[in-house]
């Protein structure tokens, strides 16, 4: 008999203790990352479904036929709610990023196939608000990335601005329904008319909003069509682990046309092992998230989804009105779906303004986690404001009576406080303007220890600095106030900020000895 080193109860108790230190995943206190339906029985169903398929390898749906049945039914549900006809097929992926990556990969292969032997680099055109997953896709798959500025007041892109960028090297245009940063619904039909006329493929990224927007109630103002009702839309991504309420690890990528879909696959028979046919980026893969999503779809059906989407929409409306009613803050543009971004009301004198990042920090002090988004310089010189993001879920409706007063109190706490000035902070941290300039130029050639020392000098890497007193994951916790951190991210050259953030995240997972070792 195999001897266990530790008792089951002991191991699980330790894990529970670790989980207690996490940000709360339920109850609506965290307004990003987590999507709480507020239905405990739905979570239990999902967990039980995932457990049933725990040993299954989703790699081979001909060996594990349950995977094929669940996947084709999940895709059938998605195709129906996103108004695809029988030319629309798809794949279940591990998440929004993988759906986006595959959409780009498929478009690149199709673009190349039509231009056999071309040495040219394909280009991806999208509004600057497009999810970072497309920056990743361009980097991974070797496409030039062409980001189109948006109107800083509304977050909206003009179809004409996209049209200006189009050419024969464009493999894919991407629009969002809606965008993550500002919840803007891009002009899908107008862009589709332009791309279709040129034979350019168009992806709609409905990763965050898809499973909410598809279930809008008749009481809400109707939206312009944004899914497969629009003829020029060739692919669409929507995440089941967001407003599909499934555990992390499941999304769908729908594709118009079987030939384009097949270009997302990877297959090889040129090795001495089993023939490889992968629809997605992974090889062996869990079936748990798929089974959970399938069970949730079976249990909720269209009516259940509509009810939950309605709760999130109502809560979003209340929050939007509440924020608009807070002196010094404004909601950016016309958010669509259960999310919104909040910026400073620049129409007011500085002493009456509320910096959205100080506001988020103050809200965190009151137990509410909002997400800070940095300001961004655009190519055309029109800067996008720094904002704070709120993702609203069905459970939010139940906590509005606590949340709204907290948002007001947080604003009262920081009204008039000047925004954190990253450039100034950098000079302070570096010990003078020249040192700061030198530091800003230092991204190139920065090695892991150099980056860690820099982070430590910024006060962002306590015990995990090289030769620090304590090496361990727990010391990777976030600083109490994030506004100065985001201000630094804004002020540093992007390459340096990115390198430092990589270091920060990597230091959090420095290997340490397992627990309970005797
Ligand atoms: C969340 C999101 C993604 C990426 O999805 P992940 O599931 O985090 O990988 C892509 N696009 C949009 C609009 C999103 O909100």
Automatic annotation (TrEMBL):
What is the name of this protein?
Aminotransferase class V-fold PLP-dependent enzyme
Q: Which domain of life is it from?
A: Bacteria
Q: Which residues carry this modification: N6-(pyridoxal phosphate)lysine?
A: 242
- Database matches in SUPFAM superfamilies: PLP-dependent transferases
Q: One Pfam match, by short name?
A: Pyridoxal_deC
Q: Name one GO molecular function term.
A: pyridoxal phosphate binding
Checking InterPro entries in the record gives: GrpII_AminoAcid_Decarb, PyrdxlP-dep_de-COase, PyrdxlP-dep_Trfase, PyrdxlP-dep_Trfase_major, PyrdxlP-dep_Trfase_small
Query: Which GO BP terms, alphabetically?
Result: carboxylic acid metabolic process
Question: Which family does the record assign?
Answer: Belongs to the group II decarboxylase family. Sphingosine-1-phosphate lyase subfamily.
Q: Which UniProt keywords apply?
A: Aminotransferase, Lyase, Pyridoxal phosphate, Transferase
Cofactors required: pyridoxal 5'-phosphate
Phylogenetic lineage: Bacteria, Bacillati, Actinomycetota, Actinomycetes, Micrococcales
Q: Keyword Lipid biosynthesis, does the record have it?
A: no
């Amino acid at each position: 008999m195999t001897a266990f080193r530790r008792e089951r109860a002991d191991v699980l108790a330790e894990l529970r203790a670790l989980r207690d230190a996490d940000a709360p995943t339920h109850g609506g206190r965290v307004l990003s990352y987590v999507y709480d339906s507020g239905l405990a029985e739905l979570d239990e169903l999902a967990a039980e479904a995932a457990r049933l398929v725990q040993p299954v390898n989703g790699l081979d749906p001909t060996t594990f036929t349950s995977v094929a049945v669940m996947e084709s039914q999940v895709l059938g549900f998605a195709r129906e709610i996103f108004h695809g006809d029988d030319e629309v097929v798809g794949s279940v992926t591990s998440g929004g990023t993988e759906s986006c990556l595959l959409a780009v990969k498929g478009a690149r292969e199709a673009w190349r196939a039509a231009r056999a032997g071309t040495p040219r680099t394909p280009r991806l055109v999208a509004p600057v608000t497009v999810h970072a997953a497309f920056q990743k896709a361009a980097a991974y798959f070797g496409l030039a990335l062409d980001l189109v500025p948006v109107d800083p007041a509304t977050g909206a892109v003009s179809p004409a601005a996209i049209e200006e960028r189009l050419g024969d090297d464009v493999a894919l245009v991407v629009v969002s329904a809606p965008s993550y940063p500002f919840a803007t619904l891009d002009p899908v039909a107008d862009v589709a008319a332009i791309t279709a006329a040129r034979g350019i493929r168009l992806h709609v990224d409905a990763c965050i909003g898809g499973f909410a927007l598809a279930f809008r109630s008749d009481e809400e103002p109707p939206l312009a069509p944004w899914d497969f009702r629009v003829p020029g839309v060739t692919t669409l991504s929507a995440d089941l682990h967001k407003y599909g309420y499934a555990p992390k690890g499941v999304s769908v990528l729908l594709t118009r046309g079987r030939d384009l879909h097949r270009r997302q696959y990877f297959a090889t028979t040129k090795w001495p092992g089993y023939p490889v046919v992968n629809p997605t980026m992974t090889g062996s893969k869990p079936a748990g998230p798929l089974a959970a999503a399938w069970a949730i779809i079976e249990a909720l059906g269209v009516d259940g989804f509509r009810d939950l989407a309605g709760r999130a929409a109502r809560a979003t409306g209340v929050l939007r009105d509440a924020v608009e009613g807070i002196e010094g803050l404004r909601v950016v543009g016309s958010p669509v779906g259960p999310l919104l971004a909040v910026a400073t009301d620049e129409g007011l004198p500085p002493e009456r303004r509320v910096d959205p990042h100080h506001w988020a920090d103050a809200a965190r002090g009151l137990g509410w986690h909002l997400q800070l988004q940095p300001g961004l310089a655009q190519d055309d010189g029109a800067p996008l404001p720094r904002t704070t993001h709120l993702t609203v879920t069905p459970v939010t409706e139940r906590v509005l009576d606590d949340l709204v007063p907290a948002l007001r109190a947080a604003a009262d706490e920081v009204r008039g406080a000047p925004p954190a000035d990253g450039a100034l902070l950098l000079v302070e941290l570096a010990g003078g303007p020249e040192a700061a300039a030198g530091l800003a130029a230092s991204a190139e050639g920065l090695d892991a220890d150099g980056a860690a020392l820099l982070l430590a000098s910024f006060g962002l890497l306590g015990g995990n600095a090289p030769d620090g007193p304590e090496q361990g994951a727990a010391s990777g916790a976030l600083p109490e106030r994030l506004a100065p951190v985001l201000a630094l991210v804004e002020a540093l050259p992007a390459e340096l900020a990115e390198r430092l953030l990589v270091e920060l995240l990597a230091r959090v997972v420095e290997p340490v000895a397992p627990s309970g070792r005797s």
